[in-house]
Amino acid sequence: MTTAPPEDQRRLLDVQAFDTTIQQLRHKRATLPVLARITELEGQIADLSTSLVESRTAANDLRRELTKAEGDVEQVRTRASRDQARLDSGAVGAKDAQALVKELESLGRRQEALEEVELDVMERLEAHQEALARLEAANDELLAAKSAAEAERDEQVAAINTEGKGVAAQRQKAAEGIDAGLLALYDKVRTQNGGRGVVALRGAFAEGLNVNLAPAELAEIEAAAPDQVVRLEDYGHIVVRVDA
After folding, report:
1. Is 14:174 a contact under the CB 8 Å cutoff?
2. What pTM does this model have?
3. How far is the C-alpha of 45 from the C-alpha of 39, rounded, in Å?
4. CA 125 to CA 196: how far, in whole Å?
5. What is the pLDDT of residue 83?
6. Coil, strand or helix: which one is 234?
7. Sequence-distant (≥ 6) Cβ neighbours of residue 157 within 8 angstroms
8. In this predicted model, what pLDDT tens digit does every residue of 137-189 receive, in sequence order?
9. What CA–CA distance (Å, rounded) separates 31 from 25?
10. Domains by residue range for the chain, with CATH
């Protein structure tokens, strides 16, 4: 049978109050609304990231396509300029001049077709760059919102941690001098019962669990010696008889 001074048993209620506050602060820290907002923003950023990668890849492909188209046009222009220079020089015979004229006509048609291709690629690239700019702006906005939310989270967590340290110091002071065996039992029971190790008994009402004890269990508790550490039958909570 475990015994402890009645006063030490009553002091457990103060320790329990501080432990409950500490537990509530931990829960508050873990369930801050800003955490859900950060998670939501991270999901949106991840979703947008896929579109960004695809859009940037497509833009790069179009830039390469445009570079090739520009190169094809320039190649034809260079050849046409060379042929025109030969023709203008008058240093070629009539037959060669005729051939150059035909080639220049062919090159002209080829240049016109290639310039149409070049223009089409330029228009598609321009349109795609506008869409990409919108995606990047949306991404920047989400990243800024996430940074702001993280700063808010850090501020709130710091405040909770500061409050928690203060409560922990009060808890340590409240536990000083309590019978070591009683305190160890309390910590064990509290761990087993999700944070509740002791209840205050007022009449038949067990505060902390908010239940009325059955008459038989209540009679057994009332009959126990003041220094006897009484525990509830169901979950083993330590019972402090505050009316005793």
Report:
1. yes
2. 0.75
3. 10
4. 66
5. 86
6. coil
7. 29, 32
8. 999 999 999 999 999 999 999 999 999 999 999 999 999 999 999 999 999 99
9. 10
10. 6-22+179-241 (no CATH), 32-166 (1.10.287.1700)
